[in-house]
């Protein structure tokens, strides 16, 4: 049995980001830039007005009512073609290029306009209401570094810098396969008492889709070696195969055998954690295989700790072992056993003085408890009795 830290190293830290692909800008949120992004243009491309008003040579202004000759107009997208001289003004709108010669914009609220002239008492202030060329970014400047996590804020910048596609790391293809004679698909109408819904497949699919993976659920297969081998074959081409169940020592736990006979090289089996002990990890060609334990909470905890960071790592987002935040306990905890314990807990109390209330029932079959909780308290192997009020690590989910 290996430690959680060692398991994380073997699964996540040894994995390299996937190859790159060009993706259309509006679909790039959540991806990671595979090369620096260099501006193809300067923004703004020229000195521009920040207000609607009149462009003027500041030396024409006195601070006392002064009448200036109106000689033309500069609007966003249609610049004034000649220069603004002494005693002259050019009507200008926000985003219009400041004409040659002018170095100040007077807002229209401070002017009285006639057909051919404008009078203002504003004094000289060179640069007032002018956005200088390149104040946002300049051509050839790196505007986004390699490794940047793309989000809507960076999509706007990339578009301004002249891009409609970005070079990013590929999103991993994840296949999910569940096993168990008792499993039926979600949505079945009538249930036999021995049946259980394959609830973990959609749950983990959602977790990893949220992280950006392209997930395919391969459904559920009975505890039958031949059927399992055939199902595993369907994962060919996936970057990650996640199996659920059949990972333990029961007579019908065939998953490891099926994976091995389909070519999986086992890296390890069993981690000193609770829940989640019988986790399998191996590689099958280019496919990383995570064999999650069947108990639904065990599978979910393993997916949070290992599968989601693996997806992050493949997408180019370096993913450290989740360690969480430190919060005080609302109740005493008994001494821990030899495995790292991930205890389901709720956040209680007012914002600013939140405490962690561990669920009374920690059985790894309880999906209702999982859904009512806010995250996991992390307990080191053999941690002593821990009193209410003690700060402990907490992984929100
Ligand atoms: N003698 C021992 N028995 C068990 C050990 C052990 O060390 N010695 N380990 C226990 C631990 S810890 C776990 S966790 C489970 C995991 O076993 P498996 O991976 O073989 O899981 P299954 O037997 O297939 O299923 C366990 C349980 O979970 C339900 N299940 C399975 N798949 C799903 C799914 N996709 N969605 C919802 N629920 C699922 C299944 O019906 C079972 O009730 O082994 C212990 N036993
Ligand atoms: O580890 Mo099992 O995952 O304790 O329920």
TrEMBL record:
One of its GO terms (molecular function) is molybdopterin molybdotransferase activity. Its cofactor is Mg(2+). It catalyses: adenylyl-molybdopterin + molybdate = Mo-molybdopterin + AMP + H(+). The keyword Magnesium applies. One of its GO terms (biological process) is Mo-molybdopterin cofactor biosynthetic process. It is an enzyme of class 2 (transferase). SMART domains: MoCF_biosynth (SM00852). Residues 175-313 form the MoaB/Mog domain. GO terms for cellular component: cytosol. Transmembrane segments: none annotated. Pathway: Cofactor biosynthesis; molybdopterin biosynthesis. Pfam families: MoCF_biosynth (PF00994), MoeA_C (PF03454), MoeA_N (PF03453). Keywords: Magnesium, Metal-binding, Molybdenum, Molybdenum cofactor biosynthesis, Transferase. Its EC number is 2.10.1.1. PANTHER family: GEPHYRIN (PTHR10192:SF5), MOLYBDOPTERIN BIOSYNTHESIS PROTEIN (PTHR10192). Catalyzes the insertion of molybdate into adenylated molybdopterin with the concomitant release of AMP. Belongs to the MoeA family. This is Molybdopterin molybdenumtransferase. The lineage of its organism: Bacteria, Pseudomonadati, Pseudomonadota, Alphaproteobacteria, Kordiimonadales.
């Amino acid at each position: 049995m290996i430690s959680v830290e060692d398991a994380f190293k073997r699964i996540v830290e040894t994995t390299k980001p996937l190859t790159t692909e060009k993706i259309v800008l509006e679909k790039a949120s959540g991806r990671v830039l595979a090369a620096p992004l260099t501006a193809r243009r300067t923004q703004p491309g020229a000195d521009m007005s920040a207000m609607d008003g009149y462009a003027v040579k500041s030396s024409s202004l006195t601070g006392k009512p002064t009448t200036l000759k109106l000689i033309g107009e500069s609007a966003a997208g249609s610049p004034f073609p000649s220069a603004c001289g002494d005693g002259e003004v050019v009507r200008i709108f926000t985003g219009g290029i400041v004409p040659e010669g002018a170095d100040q914009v007077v807002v229209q609220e401070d002017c009285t306009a006639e057909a051919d002239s404008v009078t203002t008492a504003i004094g000289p202030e060179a640069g007032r209401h002018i956005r200088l060329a390149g104040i946002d970014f300049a051509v050839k400047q790196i505007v986004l570094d390699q490794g940047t996590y793309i989000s809507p804020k960076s999509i706007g910048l990339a578009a301004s810098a002249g891009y409609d596609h970005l070079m990013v790391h590929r999103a991993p293809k994840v296949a999910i396969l569940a096993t168990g004679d008792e499993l039926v698909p979600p949505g079945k109408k009538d249930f036999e008492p021995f049946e259980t819904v394959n609830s973990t497949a959609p749950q983990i699919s959602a977790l990893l889709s949220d992280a950006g993976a392209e997930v395919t659920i391969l459904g559920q297969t009975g505890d039958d070696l031949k059927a399992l081998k055939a199902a595993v074959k369907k994962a060919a081409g996936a970057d990650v195969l996640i199996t659920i169940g059949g990972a333990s020592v029961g007579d019908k736990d065939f998953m490891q055998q099926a994976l091995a006979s389909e070519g999986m090289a086992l890296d390890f089996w069993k981690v000193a954690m609770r829940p989640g002990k019988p986790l399998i990890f191996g590689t099958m060609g280019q496919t990383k295989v995570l064999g999650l334990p069947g108990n639904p909470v065990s599978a979910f905890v393993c997916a949070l700790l290992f599968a989601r960071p693996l997806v992050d790592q493949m997408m180019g987002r370096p993913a450290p072992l989740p360690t969480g935040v430190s919060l005080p306990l609302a109740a005493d905890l008994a001494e821990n056993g030899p495995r790292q314990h991930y205890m389901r807990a709720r956040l209680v109390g007012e914002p600013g003085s939140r405490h962690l209330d561990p669920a009374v029932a920690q059985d790894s079959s309880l999906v209702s408890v999982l859904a009512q909780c806010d995250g996991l308290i992390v307990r080191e192997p053999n941690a002593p009795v821990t009193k209410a009020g003690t700060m402990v690590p907490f992984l929100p989910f």
